[in-house]
Design a protein that fits this description.
Order of helices and strands: EEHHHHHHHHHHHH
Shape: globular
Radius of gyration: 21 Å
Distance between the termini: 64 Å
Strand order of the largest sheet: 1-2
Strand content: under 5%
Length: 346
């Protein structure tokens, strides 16, 4: 193309293997949200660690809210620093380490131990902050991987592959590791692998270390094969000062950009609703319907399958009709489904 009489250099994108490696980040990270946040550890916390299910739900909600507050306060600043320094992988590695350490801590939340609840909540908060920030910086790499008209498909494919990873990790946990405390058998009718004790819920607690190990193994292709944003030469200290200044300038511009302000407000509200659904989905099933590990597992498998289809279809629709209609349609479906769920009794 010509611009001002001079030819501009065409944008080059990395080969397919780099894109596939980037997609595997979602496969690596999703088991935390599937196993820990929603379907295995969260219901175990409410039912077996807290003094009663109501207190368990409250404590889990406070922990989720605290983690969300930390993410909300730090995201603009860290995003501005990352934009000014360039590379995203060091951020992903740092927050990925938080995810691994926090998830690993969950193994030590043994029922009956006086330290079980603090350990579980601290590990969950740490891992949540790590998972969310690592995902944010991984997503920031997208624009260097594919042309703008393919971003929706790439994002949707990443989410879909992530759900498949969550589905496989959930199937392994329920079929081979986590047993019904009453029968001592897994969903597949087997005794738990590695001699995990059903009475002390070791299978449920093992969802933490499994999440950590899964992330370490499957995030490696992204670090090895996906190119990172080049360094800008700006020091971290300079970037931090610039990040604060950029954040202040953005906030000052919001009154003159009403569309951006409305988007940020709306995004805050519906994303917070999604966080609540993910955080309390399994706990709701356990507390209201009395579901045990097996029922919650089947529930999780069904939701993960439909989530995979929704993510893949949503990415294609995003490229075809744009992001806003897809978001509005998805929110409408979600509201309808939630009203249906609330109409059900035990």
């Amino acid at each position: 193309t010509q611009s001002g009489g001079a030819a501009s250099s065409p944008v080059t994108y990395p080969p397919r293997r780099s894109i596939v490696a980037w997609i595997f980040f979602d496969w690596a990270a999703q088991p935390f949200f599937t196993l820990v946040t929603t379907f295995v550890f969260a219901p175990f916390f409410a039912a077996a660690l807290a003094s009663d299910p109501a207190q368990g739900q409250a404590l889990w909600g406070y922990a989720t809210g605290f983690a969300g507050l930390c993410i909300a306060l730090l995201s603009p600043l860290l995003g501005g620093i990352a934009d000014r320094t360039g590379p995203r992988k060091p951020w992903i590695a740092s927050f990925g380490a938080l995810l691994v350490i926090g998830s690993g801590m969950l193994w030590y939340a043994k029922p009956g131990s006086p330290a079980a609840v603090p350990i579980a909540l601290a590990g969950f908060v740490m891992a949540t902050i790590g998972a969310e920030f690592a995902t944010t910086f991984n997503n920031a790499m997208m624009t260097r991987l594919v042309p703008p008209e393919r971003l929706g498909r790439l994002s949707g494919t990443g989410w879909a592959v992530g759900y498949l990873g969550g589905l496989l990790s959930l199937a392994l946990t329920l079929g081979l590791l986590a047993a019904d405390p009453h029968t001592g058998k897994t969903l597949a009718g087997l005794s738990p692998m590695f001699g995990l004790d059903a009475a002390t819920r070791e299978g449920d607690r093992f969802s933490g270390p499994l999440t950590a190990l899964w992330f370490v193994i499957f995030v490696a292709p992204m670090f090895l094969l996906t190119p990172d944003t080049p360094r800008t030469g700006i020091s971290f200290r300079e970037a931090a000062g610039g990040g604060v200044a950029r954040l202040k300038a953005t906030l000052a511009e919001l009154p003159s950009l009403p569309g951006l302000g409305r988007f940020l407000l709306a995004n805050t509200i519906y994303q917070d609703g999604l966080v609540a659904l993910f955080a309390f989905g399994g706990i709701y099933g356990a507390g209201v319907f009395g579901w045990q590990t097996i029922e919650l597992g089947v529930f999780g498998i069904l939701l993960t399958i439909t989530g995979t289809l929704g993510a893949f279809l949503g990415g294609k629709l995003d490229d075809a009709v744009g992001g806003k209609p897809v978001i509005l349609g998805a929110i409408a479906c979600l509201l309808f489904a939630c009203l249906g769920i609330l109409s059900l009794g035990p």
